[in-house]
Amino acid sequence: MKKLLSIVVAMVFIMSAQGQTKMNFSLNRKLQNSSRLQDEIAVFVKGDVEKIKTLIQQLGGVFKYSAGDIAAVRMPLSAVPVLASKNYVSRIECNDMKLEKLCDTMTINNNVWPVHAGFPPLAQAYDGTGVVMGIIDEGIDLLHPDFRDINGNTRIKFLWDQKINNDPGGITPMPYGYGTEWNSVAINNGSASAHQDGPYGHGSLVSGIATGNGFAVNNYQGVAPGSDIIFVSPDLNVSDNVFLASLTDAIDYIFTKANAMGKPVVINISLGTYLGSHDGQDLQAQLIGGLISAQPGRSVVCAAGNAGIAKLHFGYNVPADTAFTWLNTSFGSPYCDGYVGIFGDTADMNSIEFSAGADDNVNYTYRGGTPFSTVPSLLGPPFSIDVFNGINRIGVVQGQATVFGSTFSLEYCIEPDTPNYLWRIMTRGNGRIDAWSFQFYQGTLPSSSVMPEIVKYIPPDTTETMVSSFSCRDEVITVGSYTNRGHYTDVHNTIQFYPAIAPPGKLSGFSSRGPTRDGRIKPDITASGENIAGTGYGPRVTALLNGPSDFMVAAGGRHIVDGGTSMASPIVAGTAALYLQKNPTHTYQQVKAAILNCAKTDSWTGNNLPNPVWGYGKVDAFATVAGCTIGINEPDKLNGTITLSPNPADENANVYYSLPGKKPSQKYFIRLSDVLGKNMIQVPLENTAGYVSFPVENLSQGIYFCSLYAGNVLVESKKLVVK
Predict the structure, then answer these.
(1) Nearest Cα to 356, choosing from 404, 406, 408, 401?
(2) Any bridge partners for residue 710, and if so which?
């Protein structure tokens, strides 16, 4: 093994350009740091999975799992060039993007309570029993009553804290090889005391909204209070590829545990990264998509992000004349002083020329830059270009251009020699690009009299501010936020009123916008995530009560009022759990279709849906579980189908029906009811097939349910929109 390792180390320095082009910029940069070559890192590999597995074991690494042709592995950094040299490997990625926290009346606003009550046409009440609720977040309050059963035992079946290694009270979960896992027995006997939530109690609040049972005080119950809990706590304080790799590990871990329990599972992720291609085509996103689609009974829900008013993006059709956008490199990110990622379809970016240069931020004079180059001419290993003003170097521009499938990417990492410049990203030619950075210049632009060239400036905007990577996958349900309530009673029994600028039902200003870079609708749905009460983490509650923000603690002292898409996401995750309790073998497509197709609309959402702000509208848990579009066939129901036309309807609605095997002694009828189950119209059916027509012009605009019954047995139900 030592001989092999020495050969591997030598290969790092003679690595072929072909091998470098298989790796993303982040991984190539790591290989340039000789002090890190013996580090073990997590990477995603695309190619022949069986051959990759064999080689990883030979190189002293660990093959963790795979989905399709993408594998998640751990391996020495020094061994990556060997992997990259193989013709059965097409792509290797790690990631330096940090995950960030995307941080009652909720059960009314999201129409959850009729599901808990088993309101007709449901045949029973649903609370998530028999479903696993997986939460990936900072931490969870193990002592909070909302996460304990009626006997005081924990509802958490497994807890994996990825931050704590070798804790004597737990075990290291395999094949992941890091962190500590505790089961419910260990949690009940106090062996998991090393685990804590973060200082703001983000994970406890998210978990309470998704699955809290309200046992503490005031019945602040979550959406799926009967579900089992599996919790994974990633480390949010490291700046390398551990983040997205460990997140994928967490998803695989939860799916594997739920599989062993024989239960369907929903995972909520109120974490995300804003950088990346925003098309869901990075290897981590593809692998997560593969894990979700691998078998029925799985769903993943995530927060869209809280950057609704942040200027993180620019996207434009590149003009023939030079256009530019500034980066402010005076404050560096953990990645580099000035980072921007530029993405586009290969057909759109093929002829565009790019350059990075600098302007004096006092006199706004151009000081120098890199040569203009196309992405095809830059494809290959990472580049590093010294930028001069005369004989004086003013900075270094590093980067890499890559092609993956039909997508080009160009990443710039600018290291200035002086902070007194604004660095510009320049384009010319013909095509379309999108770019994301935390360091786009936010200051006042000079006038054209001071800087005539400023007329060519492309400012950053607030579109496409949603988090990237897996959140942009079609397999994932991505959630935006609207205001939950206008007031609440705090711990001092004082009524706190929410600002009038955010009335209940209005889209939250912070809620991130879509669409994806390739034009798909995201977020998918919204829920009431702003000004929402949920489970309060003990230490945070104590800190709030002892400070000026004690009004954030709700009456009873065990819950806090907060907001974010982080809090909207678990509402939808809980809704998915209610749906899977009723339909445990349904696929992720069926879960997602039920939630999106049964969304409700109002004066805030408007009728122009779906769109990249609201998605398909506001989640409606009752309509989702009742089966507004997919149908709510229960086991052993009689056969029968209905079709609605027109839908939406404004004067008359026609219901076409078919009743194969209709029994003469059985009474069949069509019933029209509102969303609360109130019977509006009922028409008997005499034939085995045909249609009935009834007027709807006197009904209020909105959603109704047209249901086919055989006696008291519900056969099928579909949503009818009256306009």
Answers:
(1) 401
(2) 668, 713
